[in-house]
Task: inverse folding
């Protein structure tokens, strides 16, 4: 599995697509900070929306930029779909899956290795996103708003939380890719997932669906608008989905003809 992860990172270092993705991610952070605008779709609670409006209405600091950047992370999914395609989608589109699976790696190691690679990529890209927001705020002459220790902690927590939440949706894409052997279906599901969950929950009054709004979970935690008992349910559902996706994918691929 380690060799597979190393090989994936080696291919990415030689990929122009990853460089373009990095530039686009950093550019998004700069645009959000420069324009003082939230980019993305949110179906959060009324308390969340009020909190976000209050943050945007105050005098902007570097801290404000980070909070608004965190509230815009649903837009990162449109970028990070490229990570999914490059890391695991290429195995199907280039028909190299059989070679990988006959090289001595087990099915569960293959799936787990791909998820770890994707999660690592997302963490690094999300870190660049928040660092770009922080540096842009400073370049524009904005005050930090809080101490530097607190800012660094915020960047670290936001990066890890947002990255994990997005990786949960990507894990659903992995199991759909293996089920359908098509890149189109999982790519579409990954991109529309936050909007789809919000719309279905609102249209059919299915309150329990909110626990599957993984990006919304991260945003609400960061803006401190989620109660502790609710947060544990969100976290449990998110972790459960990742485990089901990983082990389910390994089980499905073991039953398929490669």
Result:
């Amino acid at each position: 599995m380690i060799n597979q992860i190393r090989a994936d990172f080696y291919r990415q270092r030689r990929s122009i697509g990853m460089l373009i993705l990095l530039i686009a991610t950093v550019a998004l952070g700069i645009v959000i900070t420069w324009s003082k605008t939230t980019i993305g779709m949110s179906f959060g609670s009324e308390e969340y929306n009020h909190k976000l409006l209050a943050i945007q209405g105050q005098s902007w600091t570097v801290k404000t930029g980070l909070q608004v950047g965190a509230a815009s992370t649903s837009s990162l999914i449109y970028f990070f779909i490229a990570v999914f395609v490059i890391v695991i989608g290429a195995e199907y589109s280039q028909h190299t899956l059989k070679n990988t699976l006959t090289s001595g790696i087990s099915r569960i190691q293959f799936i787990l290795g791909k998820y770890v690679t994707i999660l690592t990529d997302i963490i690094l890209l999300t870190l660049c996103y928040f660092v770009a927001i922080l540096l842009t705020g400073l370049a524009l002459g904005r005050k930090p708003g809080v101490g530097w220790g607190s800012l660094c902690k915020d960047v670290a927590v936001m990066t890890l939380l947002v990255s994990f939440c997005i990786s949960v949706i990507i894990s659903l894409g992995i199991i759909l890719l293996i089920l359908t052997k098509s890149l189109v279906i999982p790519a579409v599901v990954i991109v529309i997932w936050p909007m789809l969950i919000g719309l279905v929950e609102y249209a059919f009054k299915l309150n329990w669906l909110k626990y599957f709004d993984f990006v919304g979970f991260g945003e609400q935690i960061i803006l401190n608008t989620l109660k502790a008992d609710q947060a544990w349910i969100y976290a449990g559902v998110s972790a459960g989905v990742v485990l089901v996706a990983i082990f389910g994918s390994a089980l499905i691929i073991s039953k398929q003809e490669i």
Remarks:
- The chain has a mean pLDDT of 87.
- DSSP finds eleven helices and no strands in the chain.
- Residues 107-139 form the longest helix (33 residues).
- The two ends are 19 Å apart (CA to CA).
